[in-house]
Amino acid sequence: MIELEHIFKWYTAGGTRTYVLKDVNLAIKTGEFVSIMGPSGSGKSTLLHLLGNLDQPNEGAYRFMGEDVYALKSKHQNLLLRPKIGFVFQSYHLIDELNVYENIEAPLFYKKVGASERKAIVADLLDRFGIVGKKNLFPNQLSGGQQQIVGIARALAGSPALILADEPTGNLNSKQSQEIMALFKQLNDDGVTIVQVTHSETNAAHGNRIVHLLDGQVKNEG
């Protein structure tokens, strides 16, 4: 599904080049659940943002489902990647002014999904995640775990092939974290490819492969 080759990302200040990612080579197969670990500043989130095309490297190649991403114009990169990727963030990124139903529905407007199909998709997700009774509540009326569940439901609304999760349990207690990771494991069992950034060895163990980053480089995989 994903092939990164010789990825470099740096910032230049005062004539000095500071590397965030340095010669990263990584392949992720369809159906894998990959955990990316490493200390703060090791480049984990930057790597995830590159995979989601939220950022781009200074050098290197990125192939997604066989397509050379950086050979495409920006518009076509988005057409290739955005429909196939769902994002889950540590800080949830729900829209405060929208209720649960509307937050889950929001990505479907961007994909120009018709009203009846939107209704069916959202109803299915509300039922799947056991949050039908909370559909009219707003984010500030939900617990952290409930907000993250809504965030995951929203990420799944477009039926992505890949979920990118950046510290998805970072703001949750241990029980909520276990519930979210169990949910990720079930999604992966259902065929969704997952790449998560995490500091937690417990969370990382839910995946089938761990990639360790240090100073912007892949140090080992297991």
Give a quick set of tags describing it.
222 residues, alpha/beta, Rossmann fold, 6-stranded mixed sheet, 4-stranded antiparallel sheet, 33% helix
Question: Would you give an account of this structure?
Answer:
- The protein is α/β, with parallel strands linked by helices.
- The chain has one domain: P-loop containing nucleotide triphosphate hydrolases (Rossmann fold).
- It is 33% helix and 29% strand.
- It has a 6-stranded mixed beta sheet with strand order 6-7-8-3-9-10, sandwiched between helices. The protein has a 4-stranded antiparallel beta sheet with strand order 2-1-4-5, with helices on one face.
- Helix 3 crosses helix 4 and helix 3 runs parallel beside helix 5.
Number of domains: 1
- The CATH top-level class label: Alpha Beta
Give the H and E element order. Answer: EEEHEEHEHHHEHEHEE
Record field, number of beta strands? 10
Largest sheet: 6 strands, mixed
Helix content: 25-40%
CATH topology: Rossmann fold
Whole-number average pLDDT?
94
The number of helices is: 7
Strand order of the main beta sheet, please? 6-7-8-3-9-10
State the CATH architecture. Answer: 3-Layer(aba) Sandwich
Our Rg estimate from Cα atoms comes to 18 Å
Uncertain stretches of 5 or more adjacent residues: none
CATH homologous superfamily designation: P-loop containing nucleotide triphosphate hydrolases
Q: Label the structural class.
A: alpha/beta
Give the end-to-end Cα distance, rounded to a whole number of Å: 19 Å
Shape: globular
Beta percentage is 25-35%
